[in-house]
Predict the 3D structure of the following.
Amino acid sequence: MLEKNENSHIFIKKLKIVSSLSDSEIKAINSLQTFVKKIDKDIDIVSFKENPSSCCLILDGWVGRYRILVDGKRQFLSFHTVGDIPDLHGLHVSPLDYSICTLTPVIVAFISHDQLRELINNFKGISTAFWRYTIADSAALRAWMVNMGHRTACKALAHLFCEIFIKIAIVEHKEDKNFRLPITQIEMADALGISPVHVNRVINELRENDLITLKSRFIKIKNWEKLANFCNFDPSYLHGNFI
Amino acid sequence: MLEKNENSHIFIKKLKIVSSLSDSEIKAINSLQTFVKKIDKDIDIVSFKENPSSCCLILDGWVGRYRILVDGKRQFLSFHTVGDIPDLHGLHVSPLDYSICTLTPVIVAFISHDQLRELINNFKGISTAFWRYTIADSAALRAWMVNMGHRTACKALAHLFCEIFIKIAIVEHKEDKNFRLPITQIEMADALGISPVHVNRVINELRENDLITLKSRFIKIKNWEKLANFCNFDPSYLHGNFI
DNA sequence: CGTTGACTTGATAAAGCTCAAATTTGGTGG
DNA sequence: CCACCAAATTTGAGCTTTATCAAGTCAACG
């Protein structure tokens, strides 16, 4: 499906969080040609060591950046949903240092590097916005690092739940702390660097502390304040403090 | 010491790794005015939650990005040495999401945001180079994350030693795997998210496996191939695969 | 209604933490 | 140069967290 893009408003919304764009810049982004594709769960859309010629804008669903270690273990580096272009780096780096796989069925709009490079060359504001987007991304990486490095498994998992909730809330404009988790316990384990069995036990701990209920992938955050406080969740890294 | 900068060639060298610069761009960078300062060990040069109006270019010594958690623990996010501007983010984000402290005595050149913004606005190549610099930085963060998340303490520490060696080798053009570690065991612990006592035991393990000798902060990598292989060190994240 | 993948629980082992007490090292003043 | 101090390193013992292996149960879906 090659189409004149009606979807880029999602991306524009994301860019506007980090930067300001002129009308002509918005128009330019809106006139991008994209190749929209539905993709199943558990498919790689970007592969480590390949040289892609387009970036992927997520229109629906969830994807994860990851790397596979020599011993076969998988480390997730970040999760992304609607409005994200997780491989924007590809405009400058090839091959990338990570792969991206789908965590749920997704709808993705592929945008050619050529078009994006033209935007960057012609619109300073877009170039700056992309740079800032990269900066926001790196702040999120740092937040994950802190989460993995120096927190107990229980707090780290709580933090991950908080992050996922906020990301859903941003996209769906919901206040309701009741949502479907896009990831399995195995994927949580690979995000936090702990074993799947331990993830399960730690979920029990969160249940016992009356912080969440979780059944059939449906999580309910029973007490947001208490949960966020428990894991010292500070959502500012998800919008950033851009000047 | 406010001085017409003779030091920016160090930074230019770093930028050239990730991007190309025109003669006029190089000239513009060379004419930056910097405020050069000698600073002792264990001093914060950038503080979390402050709003700095300049960036710091490291001319000598080592610094570390870090964050303090509510329980008082410190998590190092990256280490930097000659030629790095670890707080380049500050051009777009305020306050920053991390602090930067000196790990050794350092010499730092402070460059005002105003000057840097002028460069960005007037020279597209510089703007792109800075963006790419940010991208290289985020790849290094991902490498650390993988290191912390899914490797044993022993391999993680070996990886850190490899990284530090390569960074020294780049600056000093040395082949000799014999160098002074810029960080204490406590700092290693805070980088890897393990306890100082365990760092010490893990160093012993590396010694017993005949991979290194280490005494009075002087480390000798006895068998580079073996060490790099042991921890699956791939130095490409330190130069990147820029197009 | 059977199969498959995800989740759950138990038992045991390994990795890493904490506390505490040496010992070594690097610097500093006399 | 020596004595001394503070910081860093080293070692031991016991404990906590997390991993691993194994054997379930549950739930979705054709």
Summary: Chain A touches chain B through 47 residues (CB under 8 Å). Residues 120 and 127 of chain A are 5 Å apart (CA to CA).
